[in-house]
Amino acid sequence: MSTNATIQGLVTYKTKYRIREVVESLTENGWMKDSRFVEGHSDSDVNGLTLRIPYGCYRNLIRRLDFIVHDCQCARIVWTSTDGMFHGGVFDGERETTYELSQWAMDNIGKEPPNPDDDFQEYCEWMSEVENAFHGEFGN
User: Fold this and answer.
1) Cα dist. 84→100, 122, 130 in Å?
2) pTM over 0.90
3) Which of 92, 98, 105, 132 is buried most deeply by CB count within 10 Å?
4) Distances in Å between the alpha carbon of 86 and those of 9, 50, 58, 89, 131?
5) DSSP 41
6) For the chain, what is the domain count?
């Protein structure tokens, strides 16, 4: 089973060996090509010892975040998913804080979810608005 998640982040590694190992793994698994993320829009997502994950929707990358931040100097990765859940999280390199996004929306932007049975399109738009607000709050 796969999981789609919107992810963005920056990770700085302690050694060239470790960033090379991460980039090779991400390339082998199809998330990167020629030092850039397939979902990205930049010339390079690797700068020295820093890996940039551009804001985008990635299939199954959320399952590799522990590997990506392992043995890093510092990290900040933000993710959200509406794929069978409505959650978000923030990795700081040492720990992950997760949020139930419906509750986060009520607490932080004062918006309750519309009833999806009444207007599913309005509900989807609300979810998108909440995801964007979450990434705006915690993103790079």
Assistant:
1) 12, 18, 16
2) no
3) 105
4) 19, 29, 16, 11, 9
5) -
6) 1
